[in-house]
């Protein structure tokens, strides 16, 4: 589905960076149906009680400054169902993978979670790398359904241009590791 069609038919609640939040200016204020659109981690959405949402398929190399920039790009959206696990299934405590390009984050994960010490680390992830695995790190929405479980790891307010080599106490203060893993499935 195209974002522009979703906006034309629905009111929206938007989670993400400023240009994503700006999309609410362009939704259908007369619609009786409200949907959620997001670019933030599904683990953070789970904290807000979100069960279903639309993930935006944004190009990695393009900077969107306003909602109108995103609308002009005529991007796709995918609907997802989010399942936050409150009880960790014992049979899932294996086959771990770390998905991160940030050395400081990888070091913290391997220190905080000794079972990740020998886990393979992927800077760029393909679906085959994570199929049947429990991934710790950062994945785009469209890849999360490929893994069995996902534990989101992000850095609050991270800006690659200025935080590339973030380490030490600043990293420790800003790192956000989800308390429980999630499962995500595509719907529609």
Would you write up a description of this structure?
By secondary structure, the chain is of the alpha/beta class. It has 2 domains: 3-83, no CATH class; 90-182. 26% of the residues lie in helices and 26% in strands. It has 8 helices and 10 strands. The protein is globular and about 50 Å long.
Low-confidence regions: none
Task: State the domain count.
Answer: 2
Order of helices and strands: HEHEHEHEEHEHEEHHEE
How would a textbook summarize the main sheet? 5 strands, mixed
Number of helices: 8
Strand content: 25-35%
Give Rg in angstroms.
17 Å
Strand order of the largest sheet: 1-2-3-4-10
Please give the alpha-carbon distance between the first and last residues.
9 Å
């Amino acid at each position: 589905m195209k974002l522009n069609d979703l906006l034309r038919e629905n009111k929206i609640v938007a989670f993400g960076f400023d240009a994503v939040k700006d999309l609410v200016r362009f939704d259908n204020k007369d619609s009786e149906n409200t949907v959620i659109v997001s670019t933030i981690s599904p683990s953070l959405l789970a904290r807000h009680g979100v069960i279903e949402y639309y993930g935006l398929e944004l190009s990695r190399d393009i900077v969107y400054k306003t909602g109108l920039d995103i609308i002009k790009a005529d991007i796709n959206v995918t609907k997802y169902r989010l399942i936050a696990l409150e009880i960790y299934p014992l049979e899932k405590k294996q086959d771990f993978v770390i998905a991160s390009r940030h050395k400081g984050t990888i070091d913290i994960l391997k220190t905080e979670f000794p079972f990740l010490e020998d886990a393979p680390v992927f800077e760029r992830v393909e679906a085959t790398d994570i199929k049947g695995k429990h991934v710790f790190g950062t994945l785009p929405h469209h890849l999360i359904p490929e893994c069995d479980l996902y534990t989101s790891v992000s850095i609050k307010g991270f800006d690659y241009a200025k935080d590339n080599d973030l380490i030490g106490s600043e990293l420790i203060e800003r790192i956000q590791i989800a308390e429980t893993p999630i499962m995500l499935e595509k719907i529609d």
